[in-house]
Amino acid sequence: MNRQGWLVLLVLVAGLGWAQECRLLFQDQGLFLHTAPLSGGELSLVRLTPEGPAFVTLDPESAAVTQEWVVPGGVWFLHPILAVGPEGRRVVVLVPLLDEGWKPNQLYSQVLVDGQVKWAALRGARLEVWPVGGEAPLWQVELGMLRSMGFSPDGEWLVTITDEGELTLWEAETGQRRGEVTIPQHLNWFTFGPGPDRISVGTMDKVIRSFGLPDLRPVGELEFAERTWPPVEASPTGSLLALLEDEYTLILLDLTSGQVLHRWTTFPEPVAQVVFSPCEELVAAATTAGTVWLWQVAEGEELGRLDVAGTLPPGGLLYLSLAFWGEEKLLVTVSQRLRLEAGLRAWFTNSQGRVLACRLPVPEGAP
């Protein structure tokens, strides 16, 4: 991976400029999925390689790779289904289980088999929880296809949601099943909160339901005029929730009172991701076209917009993810396809990943 210099990113709209320095920390061939800061000062980068998902620990100053680990195994979904625990200590991956031949009403998916991209029939999927750097999973279970999964903020719990609406709470360390509930209404999303002892889910019947941990007993409901959609992000304390009313409308919700604090409707493209800063003072959102918005949480004031796609070489944008690096920087991870060539390995060799560290604008009146 290569360390680069400082870049100044152009902004989209006069008067809302976010003309801050953005440092191109790393770039390399391949698909970068996400970058997150670790408590020791290093960065954890998740990338997809022909061998499978890889976890790379990086020194942000020297660009040195201090650790690299590829999840063992030879079969993966082409668009990997995974979740990473706090501090990058554990990862949960969904492994496709292949079936032989072509059958009526069979489920098919693009998969990566020993570095080759192919269409394959599926008979299900297996969930595996790995310690990053380990040689064997901590535990595994066949669950079928999952709609969503994720770790609790403290890493103690793992939640899985199947296509059939089964929500299960697992102990992340042991795999013990602690609670289960079936929600017949179509599940759109889940998140931990409000508070450390609840989980909330959004459904197609315009209701947000909350369940207590660890037994998943019902503890409350909030009804909305519209359905709510992912991406969904809870604030670090779990009291606030950023989510979509539709592809172009982002709302900030107080999960305790059910009050909508802010509604942002200025997006020209669908919203792909939203994140809170560690102190819950800022919220950032990225669109599918590569534009990043930044707001203050308290007043809902827009602080600026950043055209990430405009800083990249010509090519198709494949992935874009955000993560706050303390309260002063935003990590932007971008992957793009540089050439639209066919071929088994071209999906990787024609793609490039970048990690940018952008200094956040200072609100007016701030010391």
Report on this structure:
The protein is an all-beta fold. It is built from one helix and 31 strands. Strands 7, 8, 9, 10, 11 and 12 form a six-stranded antiparallel β-sheet that branches. A hairpin with a 5-residue loop joins strand 13 (146-151) and strand 14. The chain is globular. Residues 1-16 have low confidence and may be disordered.
A few lines on this structure:
The protein is mainly beta and 367 residues long.
What are the defining features of this structure?
five-stranded antiparallel β-sheet, mainly beta, disordered N terminus, 1% helix, single chain, 367 residues, 1 helix
Approximately how much helix is present in the residues? under 10%
First-residue to last-residue Cα separation: 37 Å
Quickly count the helices. Answer: 1
Quick one: overall form? Answer: globular
> How does the major sheet shape up?
6 strands, antiparallel
- What does the radius of gyration come to? 20 Å
Question: Percent of residues in beta strands?
Answer: over 45%
Please give the number of β-strands: 31
Average residue pLDDT: 83
Which structural category fits the helices and strands? mainly beta
Are there runs of 5+ residues with pLDDT below 50, and where? 1-16
How do the helices and strands line up, and which of them pair or pack?
Elements: E1 6-8, E2 21-29, E3 31-37, E4 43-49, E5 52-58, E6 65-70, E7 75-77, E8 82-84, E9 90-99, E10 107-113, E11 116-131, E12 139-142, E13 146-151, E14 157-162, E15 166-171, E16 177-182, E17 187-192, E18 198-203, E19 207-212, E20 218-223, E21 229-234, E22 240-246, E23 249-254, E24 260-264, E25 271-276, E26 282-287, E27 291-296, E28 302-307, E29 316-325, E30 329-337, H1 346-349, E31 351-359
Antiparallel strand pairs: 1-2, 2-31, 3-4, 4-5, 5-6, 7-10, 8-9, 9-11, 10-11, 11-12, 13-14, 14-15, 15-16, 17-18, 18-19, 19-20, 21-22, 22-23, 23-24, 25-26, 26-27, 27-28, 29-30, 30-31
